[in-house]
Amino acid sequence: MNSSNRGNIAKPSNKKRRCFHFFGILAAIMVALLLPERTFVIALYAATFSFILLEILRFSFPRLNQWLTCHLHVLLRDDEVRHPVTSTYILVASLVVVLLFGRDIAMESLLFLAVGDPAAAAVGQRWGRLRLRNKSLEGSLAFFLFSCAIGTILGSTILSLSLSVIVTGAILATLVELLSFRFDDNLTIPLASSGGMYTVKLMLTG
After folding, report:
1. d(CA 114, CA 117)
2. 5 in a domain, yes or no?
3. pLDDT tens digits for 186-196?
């Protein structure tokens, strides 16, 4: 959910993309909480490798790529015609963090991605004044506050994560989104926030 253009007027397609990813991630979180963890991991494997296979096929066959991008253009950025789509990055990140850090921490990190990025974009576009690396500090503050608020509701009730673990994850997710490292933040936000939360959880539990 690259928000490097927040602060500019969002195109209608950007809103549709954000809604699609927001509800897609929330649906995945609900499925993860309802299914046994082993079953969810198997389903996540299947979904991730299906998307990777589709990416390989569309890059191998230009006509297939043209057909897909033509029919899904409202959900794609211009650069995704020749690069992997956001959904692929999200699925790869989801699988990696679930395998490395467990379902609960993984779901919390994905919630930061689903909630924080749209909040940052909305606030940054409307009230953003203080700029840093084409982002607004107001948007980043919204990212952190919304991630903490919604993350605490889910983390402390269903996922049994402590407040210090949740805040650590929200801080790391916000910093990664703000600094916009070279890699896609749909990949780096879950990885960084999950790694931080897992480390703090280990420190607290001994």
Report:
1. 6
2. no
3. 899 999 999 99
